[in-house]
Amino acid sequence: MHLSIIDQEIGDPMDFKFGEREEQLRREIREFAREELPPDWLAGMMLEEENRDEDWKFAMTMSRKLAKKGWLTMSWPVEYGGKGAALWEQFVYSEEAAYWGIPGVTMGVGAVDWVGPSLMMFGSEELKKKHLSLIASGEPDGVWCTGYSEPNAGSDFANIRTRAVRKGDEYIINGQKIWTSAAHRARWCWLAVRTDFNAPKKHQGISIIIVDMKSKGVTVKPLINYAGYHIFNEVFFDDVRVPMTNLVGKENNGWYQLMHSLGFERGCVAGRGCGYNRRILDELIRYAKENHLFRQEEIRHKLADMAVLIETQRILACETIWKMSKGVNLVYEPSRDKVFHDQIAERLAIIGTDILGMYSQMDPLRRSKWTKLKGSVEAFYWLSPGIASASGTDEVQMNIIGQFGLKLPRSY
């Protein structure tokens, strides 16, 4: 792709032409996918690998192979187990890995995408030394989950009630987290807790603490979703003792740190979302052609519309990466990219089920000779609403876009 646009904020032309270095990486990833993935491999949706033991085992095998290639944490600095790769290389890797459905790229939920980068910004040298190399290794002890949401704290994140009380050189943690993806697979939890119970404003009393999921008092209970997937969990903390050295950054400074972490989390959707959406679209086009559905004008128009939207998504994602490469402090762009991805995914899933017709009613977890496209469209349809709520609902993202992108008055 070669596209040049003048950015109104910076004034420089945005040149989206990938260089030979990036294109060579793209070729290498495609060759890796051909060699390492089963024939006709087609992944349904991110996080699906957490459901079944055999899928998780395969994902961890792939994590180790990605680590050996130097791709798992390729954009991290060399001293922390990365390759110091450029942002454009990271974008190509994320896009291609998602397109081909390469599992094991995230090390649970958050390890590669926001736990590692946040630790580099705020963690002590002891925490960096202990955890970054584990994540970069692709080994099970480097798998993380993220403990944010609670029964009474979703979009109102500052309302969390899980408590961490200092006693001697430890924190004693009590409370409950919900919708915790990968908690049943993770060794570590990136946990948001309340450490100041008398702070004048709710967000001022929050801290981030690292918890070993093998600690006494940690209980994980599955939350099976409506499609039968075990991705989410409830996590209970009953007098869990954690050393004070597991505090990330400053006590009661967690809100500020979390805003950076959420920026990393929302930003990781850009390239990955483009890859997932493009693959589903390509498979639907192929299916429509093979089954003579292209004769229907309505289907041709729907698929063409999706192609335009996904290409627009890719251009916006490239703009985000370009701004980062220029040192711009991003505020609304990750939210814009995420909400646009969520809306495209929802629309694509509905169009996909329309094209498959009655075949789309097959259970994606019990595939048979009647299952089409490896059940990917059904999985996409059932899992995309939950993915859309992760890291903040569309309404939350649009508030950010309105306030910081469009300079509108606050509506909350």
Notes on the structure:
The chain has helices at 20-36, 53-69, 87-100, 111-122, 125-137, 254-267, 269-290, 297-325, 333-356, 376-389, 394-405; strands at residues 4-6, 13-15, 144-147, 163-167, 170-177, 188-194, 206-212, 218-224, 230-243, 247-248. The strands form three sheets. Strands 3-6-7-10 form a four-stranded mixed sheet, with helices on one face. A four-stranded antiparallel sheet has the order 4-5-9-8, with no helix packed on it. A two-stranded antiparallel ribbon has the order 1-2. The chain is of the alpha+beta class and 412 residues long. Helix 4 runs antiparallel to helix 6 (254-267).
Radius of gyration, taken over Cα atoms and rounded to an integer in Å: 21 Å
Q: What characteristic shape results from the CA principal axes?
A: globular
Order of helices and strands: EEHHHHHEEEEEEEEHHHHHH
CATH class wording of the largest domain: Mainly Alpha
Instruction: Report strand order across the widest sheet.
Output: 3-6-7-10
Terminal Cα span: 40 Å
Helix fraction by DSSP (H/I, runs of at least 4): 40-55%
Strand content: 5-15%
Number of helices: 11
Q: What is the CATH architecture term of the largest domain?
A: Up-down Bundle
Quick one: CATH superfamily of the largest domain? Butyryl-CoA Dehydrogenase, subunit A, domain 3
Give a short account of the largest sheet. Answer: 4 strands, mixed
Number of strands: 10
Q: Overall pLDDT, averaged?
A: 89
CATH topology category name of the largest domain: Butyryl-CoA Dehydrogenase, subunit A, domain 3
How many domains make up the 3D coordinates?
A: 3
